[in-house]
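Posting for a labmate who doesn't have an account.
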Amino acid sequence: MEDALCSGLLLITGGPGTGKTTILNGILELLGQMQLRCLLAAPTGRAAKRLTEVTGEEASTIHRLLEATIDTNSGEMYFVRDEENPLKTDVIIVDECQFLLPEQIDQLRSIVNDYNIPVMCFGLRTDFQTKMFEGSRRLFEIADTIDEIKSTCSCGRKTIVNARIDSNGDIITVGEQVEIGGNDRYIAVCRKCWRNKRIEHSDRNSLPFDK
């Protein structure tokens, strides 16, 4: 926890089902024991509601947290929270950060720089077609620390791809980048299983090397 609080802008990334929510709840429990204030945020209202449900703590949208508004003259978005109107918290935690805009990531970076408030971001690196999300790309560019939650595919190899599955449990590789349906539509697999569109199972007598 001390390392996390000293990390500035921290990205914790891992595939679906790798334990990101468990780690997030563990961090919240420790922050409570340390009597530190924490603000929770997510990209959308639906994501914020889910974050509230899994943590038992109130969460808001990132727009509400940063108090985003539109300049009536230029039509551009800007954030009310600034050096003269800082956030009153000790830590900020953002879930599903892959869906944030680069400008929102930059604002979180400014919060770390200007107010020395650590920001912990949880999310995916790439989509089900192995393409990096816009928000994740910006975090990889400017985060102080990046921690990957490692996991193992059912075949025994390291998970790399966040695969999307259909109602029959088969891997699909076409479609929109963002699809409503929840985490039950996704599973972390290795690149070989994703490429073959088939999830293998490990053989104790052989090592899982790609051919």
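Reply:
Got it, the structure tokens are right above this. The helical segments are 2-5, 20-33, 45-55, 62-66, 102-115, 134-142, 191-196.
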